[in-house]
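Let's practice the habit of predicting before peeking. Look at the sequence and jot down your guess about where helices and strands might fall. Then scroll down.
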Amino acid sequence: MRIERDEALLELARAREQVEALRLALPAVGRAPPPNYPASQPPGPPPLRYRLVDAANDALKRYFEPLHRAGKRVADALKGRDGD
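Done guessing? Here is the structure:
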């Protein structure tokens, strides 16, 4: 009885592997296409939140530019000292 059960489980595992291989190889059916698909249309303007964060990021880069440069120099010096 145990051998029959093991054979049935092995057959089930093989069938699951085949189904999974087919599922991964075939395109999804019945799913909505990804956003901005097809790419034939140009994307619209970025959302307001992206523009606000970009503006804040640019302002921080300008304000902390000397600190950023110094940090990069320190990191480069430490990296060079380690022998990399």
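How did you do? The chain has a mean pLDDT of 81.
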